[in-house]
Amino acid sequence: MDVIVRPTPELRGEIGALSSKNYTTRYLLVAALAEGTSTIYYPAHSEDSDAMRRCIADLGAVLEEDEEKIVITGFGRHPKDIKELNVGNAGAVLRFLLAIAALSPDITFVNTYPDSLGKRPHDDLIESLQSMGVEIEHRDGKLPITVHGGGPKGGKIKVSGAVSSQFLSALLFLTPLLEEDSEIEVVNDLKSKVVIGQTLEVLEQAGIVIQASEDLMNYKVPGRQSYQARDYTVQGDYPGSAAILAAAAVTNSDVKVHRLMEQSKQGERAIVDVLRMMEVPLAHENGVVHVRGNGRLQPIEFDGDAATDAVLAMVAAAVFADGTSRFYNVENLRYKECDRITDYLNELRKAGADVEERQAEIIVHGRPGELPGGVTINAHYDHRVIMALTVAGLRCQQPLIIKDAHHVAKSYPEFFDHITALGGNVEWVENGTL
Asked: pTM, whole model, 2 decimals?
């Protein structure tokens, strides 16, 4: 399905932030790894979190769900012996479960999204698991991947963090269950350190003890630990809310987004600080972000590594700033569902934006006013690109058609419902044309 985004000068209203995808997937996993029954309140509903639900059920967890919670009886350190797992297009779910699959005899992760997840590399995690005695069949580090596990060994483990922090998170979930103590050393830099903070937070809540160095590059993990069955409450999601807040910033608006904790460890919380730096009128109190946008924004420079999943929304806002903005240290955007630098900027240019790229930078030559629009653009099956292009489309002179916009459901199925509820002029169409 495609979406037509028409010019929308004003947004008004209040919404509740969707629940965090990152925390939901992590809580689902630690609940599955516990022996006993855990309850997760307000879990996210998205393609990614649903992929984790489906996969842990396939691995032997028992799930019972109603509108507000999900109750999970875990399989502990003994996942069910199954032959295949299908994670859909969920990269984090794949990487976390590649490590957990080392506890099973043989599992093949199938490739159902060859043009998206099927293109993403996982060599760094594969090499780490192989060093632990796990035999893995793969094609240049990409799906399909078969894990011949059953007896992973702890000890001294190295993992590269240069492409993704998800490889390290995967090892942090696995190593507490091993017989041996482990020491994990991160080499070649570590991207998205703030997300590792979320992993460590969830592990601690699940009763796991890990000693991390201050720079998050070295870890001591005692073996023979057990995940504890616990109750968890999922907080509101900043990465998805970033696009809503950016949309409010580039229009004349009076928008409130609830359930966004001021002290959250989500790096994308920086969207609030970035919009303040851009001189967008807003307040953040008692878990509510209140934006009174006037469409006037100032340019910024920002280190995007700490807020990876909010950068595209920030760029969309910067398109309408009065001057040049620079987002640096963002090379890991190239290794997501698509190349979120080249692919995204190519689509923004079609709509009329003046943007340029470096290997690890996005440069936006902003200008007050509207973009021309009036074109059909390709979101490359990427939920973050879809949301960010929608922000730009609200402030175009002519409509934008975003192809395959239904892929927004990967993280935020209600995104267009929320935009519409705030007054956004968007419409679902099949095979849309202008």
From this structure: 0.83
Is the peptide bond prior to 144 cis by the omega test (within 30 degrees of 0)?
yes
Question: What is the rounded distance in angstroms from the CA atom of residue 157 to the CA atom of residue 186?
Answer: 9
State yes or no: is 309 an active-site residue: yes
Which helix (DSSP H) or strand (DSSP E) does residue 80 occupy? none
**Dihedral in degrees, nearest 10, Cα atoms 277, 280, 281, 282:** -70
Can you list the alpha helix ranges (DSSP code H) found in 251-323? 270-277, 311-318
Q: What is the pLDDT of residues 107-130, one digit of tens each?
A: 999 999 998 899 888 999 999 999
Could you report the per-residue pLDDT of 174-211, keeping only the tens digit for each?
999 999 999 999 999 898 888 999 999 999 999 999 99
| CB of 314 closer than 8 Å to CB of 269 | no
Between the alpha carbon of residue 247 and those of residues 85, 132, 242, 313, 363, the distances in Å are 37, 46, 9, 8, 20
Token readout for 264 is: 């959250």
Q: Are 199 and 170 in contact (CB under 8 A)?
A: no
Count of alpha carbons within 13 angstroms of residue 56, beta-carbon side: 30
- In sequence order, what are the residues at sequence separation of 6 or more whose Cβ sits closer than 8 angstroms to the Cβ of residue 235? 19, 20, 23, 259, 261, 264, 266
Q: What are phi and psi of 31, to 5 degrees?
A: -65, -40
Task: Answer positive or negative: Cα dihedral of 173, 98, 31, 26.
Answer: positive
- CB-based contact 196:163 (threshold 8 Å): no
Give the count of beta carbons closer than 10 Å to the beta carbon of residue 91: 22
The Cα–Cα gap between 242 and 105 comes to: 41
Count H helices and E strands in the chain, helices first. 12, 24
Q: Which of 305, 309, 339, 382 is catalytic?
A: 309
